[in-house]
Amino acid sequence: MRPRVYGGQPKGNSDMGMGLMGVRVRYAWRGWVLPVCLLAAAALWAQELPSDAASGPEGPSPLRLGVLINQGRDQSQAMWEPTATYLSEHLGRPVRLVPLPFESVELAAQNKTVDLLIANSGIYADLENKGLARAIATQMERVGDGPPLPCFGSLVFRRADRSDIQHLSDLSKKRLAAVNPDSFGGWIAALDYMRRNGFDPVARCAQVMFLDDHSAVVRAVIEGTADAGVVRTGHLESMAARGEIAADLLAPLWAARLDPSSEDSPLSTTQAYPNWPCAVVTGQVDEGTALEIARALITLPKGHPALEKARLAGWAPPLDYAPAWEAMRRAGLARPMPWTPEKLGSWVRSHLAVLVALGCFIGLFLWIAARLYAARFVLSMRQAELE
After folding, report:
1. Distance CA 277, CA 290 (A)
2. In sequence order, what are the residues at sequence separation of 6 or more whose Cβ sits closer than 8 angstroms to the Cβ of residue 80?
3. pLDDT digits over 15-73, tens only?
4. Which of 3.40.50.2020, 3.40.50.1000, 3.40.190.10, 3.30.1370.10 would CATH assign to domain 51-141+275-339?
């Protein structure tokens, strides 16, 4: 039976082919629209409102300033409370101090339980590399009559009467005291220095003890419970200036002036690294507030209680913390952050343009492929009819 003819054209397989083409084109559109819609939804979900934008009837919520405890909790609280008070007065909103032990700093940044951080350079460099924090100012310290410096390092030392320790290899089978595995000046910088010079203290020392306090490390060496110690630069000089130890009781090892141009700068076994930063936690502080905090710190007047209590000479614009992260990496302490919703959101935000472009390209490719397939199908149907 011949197919019915309308308007001089056969309507049968051809009509079916066009119908199939329409169905396939419709599904092709769905194939690329859906990924783009999902990307757009992910982008909207990833956009986080900074916490300092939230305010209630009583005014803006308090800013939470996390500070690393490296001198004991009470002493750290006393050191940084005036800084929190100063920022509160300058910003016109409460600033609450949150002391953090070494192991809690990264967790606080991940969980966003603090808005600002003052932590050592190694911990911060790791947080920066993971996209969890951004430095807005760098500490400047003055030891004795030395110049104010925005850098520091590690000092390895022994008792002055321990002449049996002269070279790195002499630390073999000895007891080494340090501050904490996450302390940059009190361990990591010195660990990197020793390993780069062919000595691994973890493998070759009889014991590596962590005492969580720089002064405790000094006391351990003086009392003989440790043969050598690691503290941040300037700590021995500061203890001697306060009359806590005799200046000639301890001897620095393999040390040079932190600032070669000044004979009054502290001694350091390692190279100079950028000093501790004040940083904003990602997604917690808007840019305007971050700039205001940075300006307040950098313009702190000399002799202000916030500087005196923290034993600082001032604050400077943030330095590059890449050298600190490299030392962390070489020491094997730059740990990757596990994937979390917060990390996924941060990654999507930083790659949003590429993701949208890729989604559009894939969608366009699928649409063209569907059109070509449908056209080829129709053409094959027409060829079959002609045969």
Report:
1. 13
2. 65, 67, 97, 99, 118, 309, 310
3. 444 444 444 444 444 455 555 555 555 544 444 444 454 444 566 789 999 999 987 78
4. 3.40.190.10
User: How is the chain split into domains, by residue range?
Assistant: 5-47+351-386, 51-141+275-339, 151-273
CA-to-CA distance for 85 and 94, rounded, in angstroms? 8
User: Using CA atoms, how far apart are residues 154 and 324, in angstroms rounded to an integer?
Assistant: 12
| CATH of 151-273 among 3.40.1360.10, 3.40.1000.10, 3.30.230.10, 3.40.190.10 | 3.40.190.10
For 86-137, how does the pLDDT look when each residue is reduced to its tens digit (9 = 90+)? 999 999 999 999 999 999 999 999 999 999 999 999 999 999 999 999 999 9
The 3-state DSSP class for residue 308 equals helix
Give the separation between CA 18 and CA 15, rounded to whole angstroms: 5
C-beta of residue 6 within 8 angstroms of C-beta of residue 12 = no
Q: Which residue has the tokens 């850098």?
A: 151
Q: Which amino acid is at 345?
A: G
- The pTM of the whole model exceeds 0.85: no
Task: List the beta bridge partners of residue 208.
Answer: 176
The whole-number pLDDT of residue 73 equals 86
CB 296 within 8 A of CB 90: yes
* Burial call 204-213: b when 16+ CB within 10 Å, e when fewer: bbeebebbbb
Token digits of residue 105: 């700093």
Residue 155 in contact with residue 231, Cβ under 8 Å?
A: yes
- Residue 201 near residue 171 (C-beta atoms within 8 A): yes
